[in-house]
Amino acid sequence: MRLIVVVLLVLMYTGCATKDFRQRSRPSEPLPASTRPTYNLAGYPSAFKDGYIDGCETAKKTSYGFKNKHRFSKDNQYRMGWNDGFNMCLSK
């Protein structure tokens, strides 16, 4: 009987102590501006800046890495910024 109680206590304890090791998925939309990394991209259009940050963070494999597929296919400035940011940060 004691063995059963000990086994149940161990199972209850380990059940409470387990941690979810699955990766959290990133939201489908870009992160708010206040949480995004900053880069000195003065003089560039905002679409290019957004793409550059998303591409660079993707290359660095940070949690901010993101590729807005809809915007990438429709917005030339975003696509150019994403590609430039990705390539520049990948080579570092």
Descriptive account of the structure:
This protein is mainly alpha-helical. It has four helices and no strands. It has a domain of 48 residues. Helices cover 55% and strands 0% of the residues. Helix 2 packs parallel to helix 4. About 8% of the residues have low confidence.
Strand content: under 5%
What are the low-pLDDT stretches, counting only 5+ consecutive residues below 50? 18-24
The chain-level mean pLDDT equals 79
Name the shape in a single word.
Answer: rod-shaped
Structural class determined from secondary elements: mainly alpha
Q: Helix content range of the residues, please?
A: 55-70%
Radius of gyration from the CA trace?
22 Å
What is the first-to-last residue Cα distance? 63 Å
Task: Please write the string of helix (H) and strand (E) elements.
Answer: HHHH
The number of helical runs is 4
Largest sheet: none
Total count of strands: 0
Secondary structure: elements and pairs:
Layout: H1 2-17, H2 46-59, H3 69-74, H4 76-90
Helix pairs in contact: 2-4
Summarize the structure.
With 92 residues, the protein is an all-alpha fold.
List keywords for this structure.
single chain; 92 residues; mainly alpha; 0% strand; rod-shaped
